[in-house]
Amino acid sequence: MSRARRLLELMEALRRRRRPVPGATLAEELGVSLRTLYRDIAALQAQGADIEGEAGLGYVLKPGFTLPPLMLTVDEVEALTLGALWVGERADAPLARAAGGALAKLAAVMPPDRAELVAAPTSLVVPRATSTAGDGHLASIRGAIRGERKLAIAYTDAKGAETQRVVWPMAITYFEAALILVAWCETRQAFRHFRVDRIASVADGPERYPRRRRALLADWTAEIVRQPPAS
Predict the structure, then answer these.
(1) How far is it, in rounded angstroms, from Cα 158 to Cα 173?
(2) Could you tell me the CA-to-CA distances from 21 to 14, 17, 24, 38, 179 in Å, in that order?
(3) What distance in Å separates the CA atoms of residue 72 and residue 109, rounded to the nearest whole number?
(4) 3-state secondary structure (DSSP) of residue 82
(5) What is the value of pTM for the model shown?
(6) pLDDT tens, 150-204?
(7) Residue 40 and residue 13: Cα distance in Å, rounded?
(8) Residue 199: which H helix or E strand, with range?
């Protein structure tokens, strides 16, 4: 194992733990001597890693430290590039621009071999095949999701019936055929799925919905996730 890879695995081993872990445990996990482990800890600390502890007492990585992108493995670079390319081809314009910006920033701090994988990835994404109708509402919908705010929407169902709904938006899901808004519907008093291309209008109000989005998602997962999305 290269030293760079060993340091990366040491960081990940510390990241997984919230309490101090003995050096001997880390050394055994990484397959190195205790002396090598102490040297690696010192090397990481010298590079800015906020590792507390000392020999005989154990080590802990304080929250908030993130690895610099140049320490990403080849597979990690490929995975991030593929994800950004997918967003660039299949998402709406604001997210597509953000994906392109993220890739540019990633390439700027990569060593040459990693930057080459960003510029010429081994995996590509076909252009989006779904309709772009409704994309203009996505920025408002995402803003409401992030702020846990209610939305008033005008919606047309598969039979052409138009309804006015007040919903608690939770997530946007990307399917091949359509983008689906997952929300709690006050009219139906139940979780519902709305095709974004059938949303005629969106009114974003300041009122927050009464539950946290994370709790709603947990309830939706337990109740709905195994069922096909409604049209």
Answers:
(1) 18
(2) 8, 8, 8, 13, 45
(3) 11
(4) helix
(5) 0.63
(6) 999 999 988 999 999 999 999 999 887 788 999 999 999 999 999 999 999 999 8
(7) 13
(8) strand 199-208
Rounded (to 5) percent helix, strand, coil in the chain: 45, 25, 30
Residues 6+ apart with CB under 8 A from 99: 84, 85, 87, 88, 91
pLDDT score at 5 = 76
Using alpha carbons only, give the angle 218, 224, 181 rounded to the nearest 5 degrees: 85
- DSSP code of residue 136: G
Element (H, E) at 112: helix 112-119
At 164, list the tokens. Answer: 């006015």
| pLDDT tens per residue across span 23-70 | 999 999 999 999 999 999 988 888 778 888 877 778 998 876 655 555
Q: Distance from first CA to last CA of the chain, Å, rounded? A: 52
Q: What is the pLDDT of residues 71-105, one digit of tens each?
A: 678 888 899 999 999 998 888 888 889 999 888 87
Q: CA nearest 23: which of 45, 12, 39?
A: 39
Residue 199: exposure state from Cβ atoms within 10 A (0-12, 13-18, ≥19)? buried
